[in-house]
Amino acid sequence: MIPQPATNWTELLFGSRVLLTGASKGIGEQMAYHYARFGAELVITARNETRLRQVEEKCLELGAKKVYSYPADMSFPTNPQRVVQFALEKLGSLDYLVLNHIGNDRFQMWNGNAEDVGWLMQVSFWFSWK
Question: Where are the transmembrane segments (predicted)?
Answer without folding.
Answer: none
